[in-house]
Write a structure and sequence with these properties.
single chain; about 425 residues; alpha/beta; Lyase, Ornithine Decarboxylase, Chain A, domain 1; TIM Barrel; 2 domains; 10-stranded mixed β-sheet; 8-stranded parallel β-sheet; 10 helices
């Protein structure tokens, strides 16, 4: 298991005057976000929304008859990995061998590396992890004869007789990795089946690249991908190319995860199929990109409500230098901006021990490294003042988590009840 993470003055926004502590011990300080016990900016995760999201997605996967392997690259948090596994996740998804090692430390014994593995150092590392943990099983992606040749060359130079478990990746023209045509996929599958360095255990795809937040478009494009993957799986099965055991079919991002469920439940193959969904951002959700996609998931699935935003970055109004402009203590170093600007979601005036919804007209117009430019109606009834606290909702949680070595966990009264560490 992971060694306890030590919070101290080297961690951004941890009080310089406070003694070091572990995430499990932080509640003993009795801190409250709205008592200004910690410095701003401060990334926080609301515990009630977090618990709801973990349980909701696990129940969704169970209801659909598929396994859940949450993508760990979203948070890279050992504490969250452990919670997802304890809630019933089949395993974890990671993007690199380094990330895999973090997941293994957190207790994962089944993992998909949803990426190509081919360099010597990574193959050495994967082999070492598998030797060190005999109960560990890992699948990674192969999408070309060139990559397969690299793996076979490594095995020959190392004198290694291990056959790595692998998944053939089907890609989308113009998108990222994966075989583009049925002919290329089948040629690769046949070579993988002959190889002494890998075992062909199933098929993988990633559908998120075609999603446009338009249900008609997204359903059409994802369905086309599902049909392509299903055809490859059927031909591999007919030709006897899959290794012994159940056939693994896996897909899933966080935007249109519902649309790939038919692939994960493919029937008619000669052996049982294990469908694995790999969504990651669901754990904290967001206030922007994934929130918009989720509205369409709810409409397609007939759901009244599902995931809840759990991640916020709290900032302080440090200056109101002119009418209609406030500068906040949070910027590119602290929160996501790769998809869109953060959104003011809560407002706690200076000294208040409760927060209200931020006025609808407030908007973050721009970011510097350490500042957010909050625009507001200078003639309106509500105006931020120096010393006020403003919570920013984000779009795309991955690129907020990677800016923090730790995040505070707070209850609905803003008491700090725990902490999460990250290992980016």
């Amino acid at each position: 298991m992971t060694e306890p993470f030590l919070l101290d003055h080297r961690c951004k926004s941890y009080p310089l005057t406070a003694p070091p502590c572990t995430p499990d011990d932080i509640a003993r300080h009795g801190w409250n976000l709205l008592a200004d016990d910690l410095a701003y900016p401060l990334a926080v995760v609301r515990s009630s929304a977090l618990a709801h999201n973990i349980a909701w997605m696990q129940a969704y996967a169970a209801r659909k008859g598929v396994a859940l392997a949450p993508h760990g690259k979203t948070t890279m948090s050992p504490e969250l990995f452990a919670r997802q596994l304890a809630a019933g996740a089949w395993g974890l998804t990671l993007a690199t061998v380094y990330q895999l090692a973090v997941g293994v430390e957190a207790g994962a014994r089944r993992a998909i590396i949803a990426n190509q593995v081919l360099c010597d150092a990574d193959l050495d590392g994967l082999h070492t992890l598998l030797q060190r943990h005999p109960d560990l099983r890992v699948w990674f992606l192969v999408d070309s004869l060139a990559q397969l040749a690299c793996i076979e060359d490594w095995a020959a130079r190392r004198g290694n007789t291990r056959r790595f478990d692998t998944l053939l990746e089907i890609g989308i023209p113009g998108q990222r990795t994966g075989c583009r045509t049925l002919e290329d996929a089948m040629a690769l599958a046949q070579a993988m089946a002959r190889s002494t360095a890998v075992r062909l255990c199933g098929i993988e795809c990633y559908e998120g690249g075609v999603a446009r937040c338009d249900s008609a478009h997204d359903a059409r494009e994802v369905t086309a991908l599902v049909r392509r993957v299903t055809e490859v799986a059927r031909q591999c099965d007919t030709q006897g190319l899959f290794a012994d055991g159940e056939i693994l079919l896996t897909a899933g991002g966080s935007a249109v995860f519902d649309l790939v469920v038919p692939l994960l439940r493919t029937q008619g193959l000669s052996r049982s199929v294990l469908g694995v969904l790999r969504s990651g951002c669901y754990i904290t959700h967001d206030h922007g990109n994934y929130q918009r996609f989720l509205v369409q998931v709810e409409q397609r699935e007939g759901l009244d409500a599902s995931l809840r935003p759990a991640l916020e970055v709290w900032t302080l109004v440090q200056s109101v230098p002119e009418p209609g402009l406030a500068l906040l203590t949070g910027g590119r170093r602290d929160l996501s901006y790769d998809l869109e600007m953060p959104v003011p979601v809560r407002w706690a005036p200076r000294g208040a021990r409760s927060a209200v919804d931020a006025p609808a007209g407030w908007a973050v117009q721009a970011l510097n490294d350490q500042h957010a430019y909050l625009r507001f109606d200078a003639d309106g009834a509500a105006a931020p003042a120096v010393g006020d606290r403003i919570a920013l909702g984000i779009s795309h949680p991955c690129t907020t988590f990677d800016k923090w070595r730790w995040l505070a966990v707070v209850d609905d009264d803003w008491a700090v009840t725990g902490a999460l560490s990250t290992r980016f």
